[in-house]
Amino acid sequence: MIRQLLLRPYLLAEPWLRHPYWLVRRPAQVVALAVAAAWLVLPRRETGKGEPSERGRVRERRDELAEQLSSSPRLREFLHGSAIATPIVGRIWRAVLLRLAVHAETREQGRSFALRLSRPLDQTALRNLLVWQNHVLPSALPPDDDLPVDITLMLTNRSESEARLFDLFSTALMLERIRSVAVFWDEESAAGPAPVLASERELLGRRTAAGVGDLANLPSDTTREVELHGSRGGVKLLPLGRKYVNDFLKVALPGRIVIAVGLREREDGTVASEELEFWLDLLDKLYARNPRAGFVVLNCLPPSQWREWPAHLRFPRHQGLTLQDAICLAQFAAGYLGVLDIFGLAAHSAGRPGLYVPLEVGEPSYQDASPVTSKDRRIMVGSRDKPNIEAALARLVF
Q: Around 212, how many Cα atoms within 13 Å sit in the side-chain half-sphere?
């Protein structure tokens, strides 16, 4: 009730925060600051009528004021202006608003998740982040909840993971449900900076919102389901990425049917020589069947594997496209060939026809699974067995 009474003065004062006459705007700014300060000192939780407070039965309230402040263009203009009263008033304003921004009720309960990665940051870890978003996260949230979440990721293999941190952020920012990612090397350092702005109770709630999962140990049933049937959406198609991809293809492969290719990578993010040679042989066979085809390998190559490539084969990561552009290319190309990593899952969720191979070697019964062909020309190969892959490629039509 008190919060609702406070919210009304702010709504009346907000339109006048940037009025040209100081006699009008200064009282409005004072009212807004007073409301924000009073809002912070009020109890954050209220016990319902007839509910004993010692039992802990409480009703969460959304922070309406924080939402109003974050969506106010006049307030942002006021804070970024050159004449924000005096330096002291400016510091007070920013401190109050920063404290509101990290207020425990600014975000709904359970919107922050702590994850651990007990393996090097590699191709499988990036794939697992998408699998976690699509198949594990929904079970930790209420039904029909599609709002974004915040991730705190603790890496345990520092020396092996630092080289691919940029790939981690690039991938996470393309996932639809992830709003922000904070990376730390252990739980102590993750909790270190936060107490300046958040209480220990808030921090405990954030760390234990959904437990601490491990991206290296997702449920085997989940990963098997993904390898056999792909995953549903979850990856954005960035407008700028699509433009860069379109410009690249016009120059590099004009007039060709472009097929994206994703291969297994080593821990450093480059393709192994034996993997590359196997797929190059398959691409040559496919090109012999369709001379209009053009292939773009989305992975990086080490310098030792560079040589003169034919006109129908290109490596866009070495020709100016970023990892995010390559993910957009996988969604934008006419088809896809290769493993179900972040590229393969993006292509599959976009409905690209092609050949999809498991990223990892599974159990013996899983390896022996026969290829599965869906009606939309997406062939899911249930194993990494080379004869199975070659047989599936012989039936592939673009």
A: 12
Find the CATH number of the domain harbouring 275: 3.40.50
Domain enclosing residue 172, as ranges: 112-218
Residues 74 and 130 in one domain: no
Confidence of residue 23 (pLDDT cuts 50, 70, 90): confident
Give 81's contacts (C-beta < 8 A, 6+ positions apart).
none
Label residue 144 left, alpha or beta by phi (over 0 means left) and psi (-120 to 50 means alpha).
left
φ, ψ for residue 42, nearest 5 deg: -70, 150
Residue type, 132: W
HSE (side-chain half, CA atoms, 13 Å) at 116: 13
Neighbours of 45 (CB within 10 A): 12
pTM: 0.70
Token digits of residue 271: 């393709």
Using the structure block, give the residue that is written with the tokens 């409905």. Answer: 351
pLDDT at residue 194, as a whole number: 44
Instruction: Give domain status of residue 331, yes or no.
Output: yes
- At position 378, the amino acid (one-letter code) is R
Cα 284 from Cα 80, distance rounded (Å)? 58
Greater pLDDT, 389 or 40:
389
Q: Is the pLDDT score of 54 beyond 50?
A: no
Instruction: Give me the pLDDT at residue 245, please.
Output: 95
Question: For residue 69, which phi and psi values (nearest 5 degrees)?
Answer: -65, -45
For residues 61 and 46, the answer to whether their CB atoms sit within 8 Å is yes
In this predicted model, what pLDDT tens digit does every residue of 196-209 receive, in sequence order? 444 444 444 444 44
Structure tokens given for 146: 């599609």
Is the same domain home to 199 and 71?
no
Q: Note whether residue 147 is domain-resident.
A: yes
| 24 in the same domain as 94 | yes
The two three-digit tokens of residue 48, written as one number: 């319902």
Residue 151 clears pLDDT 80, i.e. is over it? yes
The number of distinct structural domains making up the chain is 3
pLDDT of residue 362: 56
Is 49 inside a domain boundary? Answer: no
Q: Is 50 among the domain residues?
A: no
User: Is residue 148 over pLDDT 60?
Assistant: yes
